Structure formats: structure tokens, C-alpha cells
Amino acid sequence: MRRIIVWAVLAASSLYADTRYMVDYLLPRGGSRGATVEVTFHGVSLEEPREVLFYQAGIRASDFVPLPKPGDGFRVKFQIAPDCPLGEHVLRVRTAAALSDAVTFWVSRFPTVLESETKIGENDTLAKAKPIPLNSTVEGEILPGPDMDRDCYRVEAREGQRISVEVEAARLGTLHYGGELDLAVRILDADGKELGGNDDNPLYVQDPVVSIIAPRTGNYFVEIQQRIFEPPRQGRYRAHIGGFLRPMAIFPAGGPAGTTIDARVFGDPGGLRTERISLPAETGNFEYFAGTDGEKPPSPNILRVSAYPNVLWCGAGPCAAAIPAALNGILEKPGDVHTYRFSARRGEAWKVRVYARTLGAPVDPRIWIRPANAAKNLVEADDSKLQDLGLPSARPNWHIKDQLDPAAVFRAPADGDYLLGIEDATGAGGPDHVYRIEIGPLRDTMYTHITAPDGYQIPRLTGLVVPQGNRWTLDVQLAPGLGTTWQGDVELEAVGLPRGVTMIASRYTKGVTRLPVQFVAAPDAAQQAAPIELLARPVDRKVPLETGSRQGFALTNQPGELPWHFVSLENYALAVTQPAPFSIELEQPLIALAQSGDLLLHAKVTRQGDFKGPVEIQPDWLPPGVSKGPTVTIPAGKDEAAFQIQASPNAAPGIYKVALNASSTGGDAYSGVGRVRVSSQFVELRVTSPYLTIDLQRTSVEGGKQAEITAAVQQKRPFAGKARLILRQLPKGVKMLEPPPEIGAEDKQAAFRIAADGDALPGLYKGISCEIALTDEGENVRMHSGSGTLRVDAPRTAEVAK
To answer: The whole model's pTM is what?
Structure first.
């Protein structure tokens, strides 16, 4: 299972702070390779924990012990394999009845040392600094209080030995909201003189890293504190302190799959290093740990592995390149502009993707492409969109550092030579300003994603939780990749569904990007959690279409909702839980939903055992142009209810699959945490043209008198019996006289009698409409039609007015 980790730095909606999550945080925030760690989960609705689902191998959970207060959390042992992948591990908790939001746990190559500070001041000075051995990971906390907490650690080092510090704090995302940790780090000598320090950096943004060479043998001190004081709620951090190498950039930043490259490693205080790197056969991102076994860093540098040959900057452009290719260079001086010359044939389409800030280099790249013999640019690209980067599952206004790297499509207008230029948008440059530009054939791509409208982890809208013997329905969305032009019909393919679980999905026709998808668990399906993929396959299987699954979540680390850390997963998590205490069935509508009309969806709840509580029902998806009323509650002691939906005049005609979702009450109504949720079966909803339309003729009425509004009736569909017509939105002081007109399926006209009070306000009133009520197949149908104009005149004499 693969994952993509990126950083976000913009504000989002205040709704995030109020959203309820099952897992608020877990402690400790990480552990060491080969260790067994007792981890405590804190949150709500965590009764009966059954499983921890990890998105990658290396950790096994066992021995669940609930906390004393039911639902508040539990303790569990994490057995970390000796070869467990280092860094971030995404996980979810499956309880007997639910599947939690995603949270993270971190693995280090070094032994863990606990800070063990119980109050501010215990290790805030050099004299009180906690002694730790080099090559340790400190599990620490910035304590809350009226004064800033400062944590100091003492290490011993030999002259010429490297001392490096890398802090994980913003990346931890200890709380979904309000983990305020923007830390800074300093390395001091025994006299308190600063030898090195860091606050922010291009590699890890808010999480500091620093390396020095010890000038003499003796004691050195590491100081960790907030950059700006703000009393934290859960100020957790992990500080790796040791003699490890901490590269800030590597050049070239990748190479062809299955080859070996000679690379320069930047950022070591000992000077520039050269390493021979063996690249894997698999293309994509490659996590590379530089240095020898005894000096490898706690986290990797990301390199790119592609199918394209490397082209290195030749020193004086334009440098020749034969595409497809990966262009590699360093913008060493401020104002540097590198250019490359390549040939392309008319009609060829190429994807151009820059990797610089994505890989942690301090570059804000900008590119352009133009004919070699012309001055006008055909392509100009600076920043990129999340969807262009293959990250559609996110809040649109979030901005991550990867978006500073442009992505573009180049379509050659003619055979010939072209120039590609790259520069730093801010004019900056330096020895570590590394970039890589991959130019490859453009391929049509379609991603599936499950994303709540606000972009956050909302189990009610994004969770795949199916009780045994029941159903759950949620929206699955499609997002085309950069430059995709194919728009054919798509079918979903589910990969990795547990035995006993099936998927029901409609075909996505041209232009459709969101549809409800239903998952059904057989009564004997095993209770479990499993990673699955939902792939978008063209109905015409001969069409080449790349596809993948995406589900993202942000870990918000500061008030104002600054999602500093964003994780994009390439699998969905599906859980089969214990049987629900109720099920819901939706009655197949006997009639169609008419444009501009209303329809009642009739549902019946079947309760199991001693469950007598109320049940809330609502559809989460409706066809385009169809809206829903408020949530309907089936109270205790009742089993049936109707849910009203309405179609706009422009609702798209067609036949659609719809379902009603139902949940128990209590818990958090918005997120669904603390509730049991099930779905009805799909039924067919037909959206059609209206039975008839009304064209209200323009009319006037004098105050204190009566008048008649005539209407032309256009019959669209046959109906039995009579339709009753009622005027709506009449101005104040004007009323329709009884009885209302009734018409049959053959009538072409109708007339309404109205009366105006003597003090009715004169004026021209637009938007007078007509409500149409009829019965079809025993169902009451209500529609709206017409938009008439009525002029109200003042009474002609005072006597009439009186």
C-alpha cells in the first residue's frame, strides 16, 4: 500500500474545530524499530476495540485493554518489526461497530528516551538539561502554562564529530485541531554559545533540522522551544539527536529505473559528499537514506525514479535533450535561467512536471516553452493545482508546498525544435537549488476519490463501514488527471474487497463525476478491516486509461486551521462490523419525479432485538437538479416515514439509482461519530418532464375590486382525474378567491379569480406562480409552474377606497 505525504499551509473552515473524531490522539507518538510499545488511544466511541489497520507492513497490534471510562480509549501493544519502514505509519482503529478516522504513528531507527518532565522548569536550563546518549529519539512535550516551556538535552561528542537534530512536531498532527507546535531548535556549547539553529526549512517546513561539527570534545546542549509562544493543548514532539547525516538536497534528484547514479549530497556541515545510489526497478518516488549504516538520517530524502534517461545541465544552454527525458540542474546563482532544446512533432502531447520544492529543495520554479526560432511562449507555468499533481481528495483552498512546482501539458503545434526554460520565480539561487523536470508522453488518467464537501474526515460521508448483513452507500467521485481529454463511460472496479462484501455501482456516463456506490456485507462476512482500491475502468476496455484511488486528510496543527501536514492515501479502508440493530428498506416510487415537482420517498425501518430508539433518514446523493428537505426522524415506536425531494425546472431527465441512509441518534450528528449507520437498497428514481406547464397572462387589478388571471395550459404528460391550481406569491392585500380552478388532462386554459383590498399597495409585481396538485398512482404530486406579472392599481376614487 502506497501513500503520498505532502505539506499544507493555508487556512480552512472553522467547522474543522467542531468536528468530532473517534481518535483524538495516541501516546506515545512513536517507537523504535524492534521494540514493543504500549500505546494509549484517547477519544470517544472507542468501545470494544478489535483491530488496528495499518496502511503498510511493519507493526502488529495486540493485547487491547479498555480504559476505565467506557469509550474514552484503550491501551494496546505495538510490536514493531526490526525492519519496519521508518517514519510515518497511517492507521485506523476498527471497533465492534465503527472504523475510526486516520491518525499516525512514527517509527525511529534510534532507541527512545522519554523526556519525563512533569512541570515547567525541570529541564529548561543548561544546568538542568537532561543527559541523553547520541543517536536517541526523545519523546517530549512542550508543557502548557502561562510561560513558555523550553526543553534542554545534554549530549557528549568528540571533536570533529557531527551533531544533528531533526524534530517531528507539526508532522505528528497529534490533535486533529489545536496541536500548536511550530518549534525551533538550537545547538549550544557549554558556555551557552549558539553553534547552529533552525526554525523553518524547505525540507520539512515548520519542523526544524540542524547539523554542526563539534569544535572540541565535551558537552553540547540541544534546546527545543516554540518559535512563538502559545500555550499548547498537546505539545508533543519527537527529536532525533545523533551523529547522523541530514542531507538537504541531492543532485541529480533521481534517474532511470534500475540504474545506478553518482549523486552529490548537500547539507552536511562536513562538506559536499558524493554517493553512488542504486535506484529500484519501480518508477515513482524513492525514499533514499544517505550515508553509511552508522550515519543514516532518521527520515529519507525523496528521489524520483522514471523510465526516462537523465539529461544533466550542460553549463551553457540551451542544452540538447531528446524527449522523453528527465532534465536535472541546479540554479546555483540568483537570476539563473536554464534552457534546454528538444524536438517534437506536430500533434504530440507531453506532460511536463517539475520536482523541486516537492523534494525539499529551496526552489520556487517557473517554466516556459516556446519555438526555438520565436520569442512568444506557448506554455507558461508557475504553481500547480492539487488535482494536477494527482491529489484530488483535498479541500480546494488548501495549499501545499508541492504546488509551488508547476505541471503543464505541451502540445506541439508543428514539427520543429523547441526551448524549455526554468528559473526561480523569486530570482533566488544557491548550491542546493536542485530541480528535476520529467517530460513524458501525456496519458489519460482518471482517479477515484471519496471526499467530503469540506475536505475533512467525516465518517458519515467518507467512511466505508458496513455492518454484517447490511448495506452502506456513499459518494465516489472521479477526477481526471492533468491534460486528460478522454470523456467516455466509466465503470468502477473494486479490488481487495473482503470475502462476503459486494459493490453495487452505476456507470459513470460522459460528464458525470459523482455517483452513489453501495457496499453490501453478507450476514456471514467476517468482521474485519481491509484496504481496497476503486479503479475507474473504461467501458470500452480497449481504451488506455491509467487509474488509481485517492483519499486525503489534513492534520491541523494550529487555531485558524492551518493544515500543516497533509496525507494522501492510495487505498480506502473498508470495515465489516457487527450487525446493526436496525435496517431500512426504501419503497420503489410508483411515479416519476417531475421537473419543478416534489416527490415523497417512503421508507420502513426494521428494528432488531431490544432496539427501540429513533432513526434519522436522509439521502446523501440525489441527481443533478434534485434537492432534499431536512433530515427526517422516525421516532421510537414508529417504523415508517416519508422523505421529500424536489426537482428544479432544469433537473436532468433520466433514470437514477438512489438510496436512503439511516443512522441512530446521539453522538455527533454532523460527522456520524458515535452512531450506527446503514443504507437502504437502491431504487430507481425517474426524473421526467412535468405533467403540465402554466403560462400566467399579465393582468391588472384595482384596489377594492376583483379581477381574473387567465393561464394557458400546456399538457406534457397524461394524468387521471383533476389537477387543482393555486396561485402563489401574490402581493400583500391580494388573494385568490375560492374555489381554486381544476383542470383535466385535456384542458388548455384555466382562470383564477382574485380580489384586491382597498389598501393593497399599488405596484408591478413579478414572479406570481402556480402550484399544481394532482394524484397519480395513488401518490400526491405537487409541482410549480409559471412566472406571471400582476399590476395593482390604486383605487380610482377615495369613496371606492373607503
So the answer is: 0.91
